[in-house]
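Revision sheet: structure tokens.
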Amino acid sequence: MKKLILATVAVVIMASPAFAQQKYKFAVVPKAMNNPFFDVARDGCLKRAKELGNVECIYKGPIEHEPATEAQIIQDFITQKVDGMAISVADVAAMTKSIEAATAAGIAVVTFDADAPGSKRLAYIGTNNRDFGLALGKQLRELRPEGGKYAMISGGPGAKNLAERVDGVREALKGSKWVEVAGSPTFCNDDSALAVQQMADLRTATPDLGAIVPVGGWPMFAPEGYKAFVNKNKKDIDAGKLTLVVADTLKMQLELLRDGYSNALTGQRPFEMGEKSMDILLAIKKGEKVPEIVYTGLDLVTKDNVAQLLK
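Predicted:
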């Protein structure tokens, strides 16, 4: 009887809150939920949270690229008292204030994909965006060393990560025979259909435009419109008079490259961004020291290696 009582007491003690594993709620806030790039980051977050066991990944952001809506969603998460947030910064000025509010409420904040380095965020997980832009520009130089006129398409004008990519492309093409046209970059605000329309508008405005470099994958995220643009300009593309070097390497983009709808892709690793965001936030909550910058790397893809990446 005494042994039975002792065993019962042990079970009660182990089941008590003091001995239970701490559970954490971490929110992942993308710039826009209609951007399939962030779907991949979400999948990485959910997978890692399930593996960790004591973490819940909550994925929510604005449907479209709307910094004010993103700020409101962050405020809602502050009110809900989540344990941590990973934010893709749509607008540095707005998000810096939101991050400060979250930090003041005792919430651990990291950024992913797009950073706000002057804020109180504890870490950034994502791409070295200057190197990303450099890689895009170098791909164009290697494909078309004879140069010509080129234009870029960007997302939101307040996104620091995209501005760094634009600067990287310009740096890579400095001293080459490539000349950027007036009005470049255009800003599609992460709207895929608008990005395709801007490609067409750039081509109309400059008929001898030699290259278009979207610093995000937006036009390809509207595949039917994108293919229609390429088919309309296929003669010049096949003749090497128009070159398309596009950012990101989602599966649909790799398939488009394989099928001849672009010349090259430079890809990020959003799945790893989602995974590492969970790892870093958990480490912070455990009181562990974390690196301030975690770069997730790049993938350079052409027709020569696209089949390998599709595997």
